[in-house]
Specification:
The protein has 267 residues and is mostly helical. It has one domain. Helices cover 76% and strands 3% of the residues. It is built from ten helices and two strands. The protein has a two-stranded antiparallel sheet with strand order 1-2. Strand 1 and strand 2 form a beta hairpin.
Length: 267
């Protein structure tokens, strides 16, 4: 029987701790989101941080309502992006341990995730502002999805075309090669961990931002579309030759957009 070395035992323990923490965070985010989505299915109203959105009232939202909108989007981004970010967080903890065997990697890994979600937090703020504007322009229904076939169709076409661009391919290449990213971008110290997380978050946001906006067509709190987009993001990072998958998704999105423009939308 081959006994593992002390270093291998520590690495395995680190991996379990970090993986458990990431899984717990993702589970909490998904539990909150599923609860909110079910409540919306029952009442037709989305309640975020005690504030109601949707329903028959189409009056303009106040600026204060940007706060719960931001929280809703930020929580969704944690639920959707954390599963795809798990590999890079695990590799980060492993490399950090190997470089500094006397340190425990939990805090640096947490700082890396903090930087990562700072970028997605900025995206969430912009998405909340976009939803606020779309509501005031009467382009979203009471279920927080597009009420305009033209808006929805062109958004789908734009998201589809983006899947074919060099920008998408470049960002996806960085996101799907976490070890290469970390070795080429390594920074020492706590601030270095945050900056690495910000850089990786920028690549991931650049890769997926238009896919996230597809929720304005399908329904911002449509749990099945959220799950489908989450699986797509994961597959784009984990499946070999992911560029072929991205190209195929682009074809589907453009086709759906053209269909929506031609038929006036879907029910």
């Amino acid at each position: 029987m081959v006994r593992s070395s002390p270093t291998e035992s520590v690495l395995r323990q680190d991996r379990l701790v970090v993986l458990a923490a990431v899984a717990a965070m993702a589970a909490l985010a998904w539990a909150y989101m599923i609860r909110a989505a079910r409540a919306m299915d029952r009442t037709g109203i989305c309640e975020c941080v005690g504030m109601a959105f949707g329903g028959p009232d189409s009056s303009p939202w106040s600026a204060w309502q940007l706060v719960p909108l931001f929280v809703m989007w930020a929580e969704m981004m944690v639920a959707m992006m954390l599963p795809s970010a798990a590999p890079v967080v695990l590799i980060f903890a492993r490399v950090n341990r190997q470089r500094r065997e006397q340190d425990r990697p939990y805090l640096p890994a947490g700082l890396f995730l903090t930087g990562y979600f700072m970028v997605w937090g900025a995206f969430s703020l912009l998405a909340a502002l976009g939803q606020w504007v779309l509501h005031d322009a009467a382009l979203l229904s009471s279920t927080m999805k597009s009420s305009s076939s033209a808006f929805g169709g062109w958004l789908l076409i734009g998201a589809g075309i983006f899947q074919w661009t060099p920008w998408k391919r470049s960002c996806l290449a960085h996101c799907s090669s976490p070890l290469n990213f970390l070795l080429g971008s390594w920074r020492e110290g706590a601030m270095g961990a945050v900056m690495m997380g910000i850089r990786h978050g920028a690549y991931c946001t650049g890769c997926c931002w238009l896919l996230m906006l597809v929720l304005f067509v399908a329904g911002v709190m449509n749990i099945w579309w959220i799950l489908a987009l989450t699986l797509l993001v994961v597959l784009e990072r984990w499946v070999p030759q992911a560029t072929h998958l991205s190209t195929g998704v682009g074809v589907v999105l453009v086709g759906c957009g053209l269909w929506m423009l031609g038929t006036g939308g879907w029910s």
